[in-house]
């Protein structure tokens, strides 16, 4: 059987290139190939099991309409024409009777490429005048901080970590979310690099680190500011660099001055000696690199925390050398954007924050009448899960779910549409860790009657009279439209068409503040930009204290796992989830390993089993994200405990601000 080439678009920084074997229309083998030198021929276990996802019993294979109560999962099959006609009729009715804003697309798209998110789908919803969706559930606060300080300057390339003498993993767990970085870190350690991990948990790399700091969730901001204060106060700030290449450093210094190491130690729960040890490492090691993850943004202080973390290399003078600086998202390094595919500007309608969709679905003053869910599983991934469930259960809400498998959300749909997987359709992806782009082509026939996104949204545009003659239709025309708006479109397009992979034009390992610069007109780092300062409720770098109460004292965190990408692949997990508690917290509550417990707060409750573990700090409970209703005893997941309060920047989610109590049942 021939080996076919593909690439993984799932929400992961690494952007693996793949080798796929298909026998009589079924996926039989999926492995890594070597076109992307960073991923170098190996892939994660979750993608290795992709055949179970593509051909499993939960795979949707035909359009269906609801035949039982909402949430029952009772459906009957219909034709594509019947399903699309029903959807178009209800969308037209909603617009005519209630206005286009009564239609709400609910999507995220982290595991989708440029042809399947923000393309023909945006064309449909923009032209019909639907409510806009602020897709802020992830990376919004950190994205605002990155944009405000550095203009989304490309980060240190992940392969360049081999040069570093100090590697800091701050709120990121590569063992679960970026496995190809792990061997690079280990080789750097073998060559003498020091590794520091900042995480409330003892993640796998923390066990091999020279220093592990386990701050209380939501206290990354005072931790980072105390390091900045120490650098300034002890003569280790690079004042010449700050004067030449930054603005606002005086304001940063003034705000950091409020956080001495002892004060930060009291707030974070990290020993003052460990803070000082970390500060001395930052002042002396070169090259030094910080891999800032998305953990620090998931709280009320998330944007300011990220800003303070990525300001550290500027204060310490870590730029200008290979392996020196920081890394966040590198998705902007290849200038591919799909606004031209949408071919329609956003309408002047209301914007609904994705984190508050549950609230929007229950709004009686400006009600949503049609919800179109695609590229997401909101019942499993959004805050205020029980509010979301009540919204989806509305009998007067017409809900469409367009997905690959029967998700928890799909059980509440009026119409379910089967979607193709990335092995069954065309797409174009951008890595946000690896600096590459892939062209993806189908390597196996669509399972059942599944269809790609562009085909379905084009068909709905046609039925609603929204199509225009010059719309880019089909994968080839869509790709041409994307490339035509890119300054590197000709070279990138040639590489994508010939090799299926395009690297960043120019130097494949650019050095920050030498080869790439802040994307501001003055090419300077803006350490205290006015727009961020005005947006943050207490000003940029202003700290808001812990939201815990005596009745709900435990900080709940919900990190990713090795087995899921957000909630994708959750249907393949058959065992029940457990909530992890530190032995001190378990003992104080009379809880033993394996006990059934009730985890609760004002938002909701989860019934599951307890796992007593010393791999996380006292005062913290851990229940992974991406769980489905089947994984707990009462069908609720960690999102049932998460408030829909917003972070200080970008309207981001505050998952790690959930405070709970746990009792033995």
Task: Spell out the key features of this protein.
single chain; 665 residues; alpha/beta; six-stranded mixed barrel; 22 helices; 29% helix; globular
Structural class of the helices, strands and pairings? alpha/beta
Mean pLDDT: 96
Overall geometry comes to globular
Task: Determine Rg (CA atoms, Å).
Answer: 24 Å
- Helicity range: 25-40%
Numbering strands along the chain, what is their spatial order in the largest sheet? 5-4-17-16-15-6
Number of helices: 22
Q: pLDDT under 50 segments (min length 5)? A: none
Largest sheet: 6 strands, mixed
**Total strand count, please?**
27
Describe the protein in words.
- The protein has 665 residues and is an alpha/beta fold.
- It has 22 helices and 27 strands.
- The N and C termini lie far apart (54 Å).
- The mean pLDDT is 96.
């Amino acid at each position: 059987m021939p080996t076919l080439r593909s690439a993984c678009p799932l929400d992961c920084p690494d952007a693996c290139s793949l080798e796929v074997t298909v026998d009589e229309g079924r996926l039989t083998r999926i492995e890594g190939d070597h076109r992307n030198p960073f991923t170098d021929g190996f892939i994660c276990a979750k993608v290795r099991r992709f055949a179970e996802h593509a051909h499993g019993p939960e795979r949707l294979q035909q359009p269906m309409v609801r035949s039982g109560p909402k949430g029952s999962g009772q459906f009957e099959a219909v034709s594509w024409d019947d399903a699309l006609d029903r959807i178009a009729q209800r969308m037209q009715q909603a617009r005519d009777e209630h206005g286009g804003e009564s239609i709400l697309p609910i999507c995220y798209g982290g595991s989708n490429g440029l042809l399947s998110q923000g393309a023909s789908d945006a064309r449909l919803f923009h032209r019909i005048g639907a409510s806009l969706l602020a897709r802020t559930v992830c990376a919004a606060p950190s994205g605002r901080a990155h944009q405000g300080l550095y203009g989304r300057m490309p980060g240190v390339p992940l392969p360049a970590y081999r040069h570093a003498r100090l590697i800091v993993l701050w709120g990121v767990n590569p063992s679960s979310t970026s496995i190809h970085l792990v061997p690079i870190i280990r080789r750097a350690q073998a060559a003498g690099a020091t590794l520091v991990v900042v995480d409330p948990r003892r993640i796998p790399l923390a066990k091999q680190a020279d220093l592990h700091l386990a701050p209380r969730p939501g206290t990354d901001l005072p931790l980072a500011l105390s390091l900045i204060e120490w650098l300034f106060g002890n003569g280790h700030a690079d004042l010449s660099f700050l004067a030449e290449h930054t603005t606002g450093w005086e304001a940063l210094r003034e705000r950091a001055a409020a956080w001495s190491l002892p004060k930060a130690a009291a707030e974070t729960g990290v020993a003052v000696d460990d803070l000082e040890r970390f500060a001395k490492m930052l002042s002396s090691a070169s090259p030094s690199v910080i891999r800032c993850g998305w953990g620090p943004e998931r709280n009320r202080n998330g944007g300011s925390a990220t800003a303070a973390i990525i300001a550290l290399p500027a204060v310490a003078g870590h730029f200008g050398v290979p392996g020196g600086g920081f890394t966040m998202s590198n998705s902007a390094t290849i200038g591919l954007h799909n606004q031209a595919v949408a071919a329609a500007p956003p309408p002047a309608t209301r914007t609904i924050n994705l984190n508050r969709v549950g609230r929007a679905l229950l709004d009686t003053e400006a009600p949503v009448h049609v919800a179109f869910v695609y590229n997401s599983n909101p019942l499993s991934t959004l805050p205020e899960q029980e509010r979301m469930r009540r919204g989806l259960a509305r009998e007067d809400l017409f809900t469409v779910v367009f997905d690959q498998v029967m998700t928890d959300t799909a059980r509440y749909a009026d119409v379910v549409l089967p979607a193709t997987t990335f092995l069954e359709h065309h797409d174009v992806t951008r890595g946000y860790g690896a600096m590459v782009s892939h062209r993806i082509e189908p390597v196996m026939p669509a399972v059942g009657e599944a269809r790609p996104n562009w085909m379905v949204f084009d068909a709905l545009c046609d039925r609603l009279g929204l199509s225009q003659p010059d719309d880019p239709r089909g994968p080839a025309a869509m790709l041409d439209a994307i490339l035509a708006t890119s300054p590197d479109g000709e070279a990138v397009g040639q590489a994508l068409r010939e090799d299926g992979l395009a690297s960043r034009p120019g130097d494949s390992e650019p050095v920050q503040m030498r080869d790439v610069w802040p994307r501001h007109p003055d090419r300077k780092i803006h350490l205290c930009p006015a727009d961020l300062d005005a947006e943050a409720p207490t000003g940029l770098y202003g700290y808001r204290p812990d939201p815990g109460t005596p009745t709900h004292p435990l900080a709940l965190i919900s990190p990713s796992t090795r087995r899921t990408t957000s909630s994708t692949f959750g249907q393949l997990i058959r065992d029940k989830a457990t909530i992890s508690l530190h032995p001190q917290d378990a003992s104080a509550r009379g809880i033993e390993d394996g006990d059934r417990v009730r985890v609760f707060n004002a938002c909701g409750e989860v019934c599951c089993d307890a796992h007593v573990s010393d791999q996380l700090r006292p005062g913290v409970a851990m229940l992974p994200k991406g769980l489905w209703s089947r994984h707990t005893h009462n069908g609720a997941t960690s999102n049932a405990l998460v408030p829909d309060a917003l972070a200080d920047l970008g309207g981001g989610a505050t998952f790690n601000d959930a405070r709970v109590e746990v009792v033995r049942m």
